[in-house]
Amino acid sequence: MNTLSTHTNNEYVLLMTACIEPKNLNRPSFRATPHVRLEDYKKAFEYWLNYPDKRIKAIVFAENSGYELTELKKIADRENIYKRNIEFLQFEETERLPGVHYGYSDMEIIDHAIYNSKLIISNSIIIKTTGRLYFPKLNKLLDLQDKNQYDFFSDVRDFSFRKFEKHYIVTTLLIIKPAFYKQHLYDIKRALTENTASHMETLYFKILRPLRQSNRIQLGFPFLISTIGIGAHSNSDYASLKKRIEAIGLFILRRILPAS
Q1: What end-to-end distance do the CA atoms of the chain give, in Å?
Q2: pLDDT given for residue 258 in this prediction
Q3: Dihedral of alpha carbons 39, 40, 41, 42, sign
Q4: DSSP code string of 112-179
Q5: Alpha-carbon span 26 to 96, nearest angstrom
Q6: Which pLDDT score is estimated for 27?
Q7: CA distance 85 to 239
Q8: CA 254, CA 9: separation in Å to the nearest integer?
């Protein structure tokens, strides 16, 4: 890869959220085996270590099952060609009640990392990724972040056409400033246990949509973001023709039939 040398004062920290050995699956998953999931995380971790954008100063790998991370640490020692600061965080996830969406655990990981990471500091900008996935066009989003200094930047599905509508944040890739997260998103996961929301994605949308007027919030990427990896529950390749057509269709619907 060619090095992407963009000058910026932003301190980007890539936060990879991970669960290698899921214990609280409330719905079937094709990628529930620790060995399979570990291979996914290893591939993504190696990709990010070699990602040539020097604006990414650090990588935090935050994992909530306590699974052995020796193989990932070896990759960090071997592949860290850009000399990024690397941090491994682990804790035991809270047992979810039956029916509580798995997004609860992802939000718990972010909460934990925000307050326990030594690399995420007040002037950091967090790039939160679902740890098994990676996004080759991330650098283009960072260009926009540098220009606009968003507090929160994500993709969204927000459209309405007759009885067909979608309203949720795509949480596989988020760009967030820590202060904004602490003020508006920290510990909102309790809404899932209190049955005031069903999914992480719709809960984020419900909270963030009204804040757009008074904060620097951008919901919706202005171009298609290529996602690389395998969906855990669908077992479908994001790079497959079917998934790419689906992504194009949802992108077009958001642009021509916006709900807000």
Answers
A1: 39
A2: 65
A3: positive
A4: HHHHH-SS--TTEEEEEEETT-B-TTHHHHHHHHHHH--SEEEEEEEEEETTEEEEEEEEEEEEE-HH
A5: 9
A6: 56
A7: 30
A8: 32
Q: What is the DSSP string of 85-131?
A: EEEEEE-PPPPPPTT--THHHHHHHHHHHHHH-SS--TTEEEEEEET
Radius of gyration in angstroms for the set of CA atoms belonging to the chain, rounded to a whole number = 18
CA dihedral 231, 234, 238, 241 (to 10 degrees): 170
Segments of the chain scoring below 50 in pLDDT = 5, 7
The owner of tokens 């069903």 is: 198
| Distance from C-alpha of 208 to C-alpha of 35, rounded to nearest angstrom | 36
| Distance from C-alpha of 212 to C-alpha of 160, rounded to nearest angstrom | 19
In contact, 159 and 258? CB cutoff 8 Å: yes
Identity of residue 237: D
User: Which tens digits make up the pLDDT trace of 215-225?
Assistant: 899 999 999 88
pTM for this prediction: 0.90
**pLDDT (0 to 100) of residue 198:** 85
What residue has token string 């020692």?
77
Q: What is residue 26's predicted lDDT score, i.e. its pLDDT? A: 59
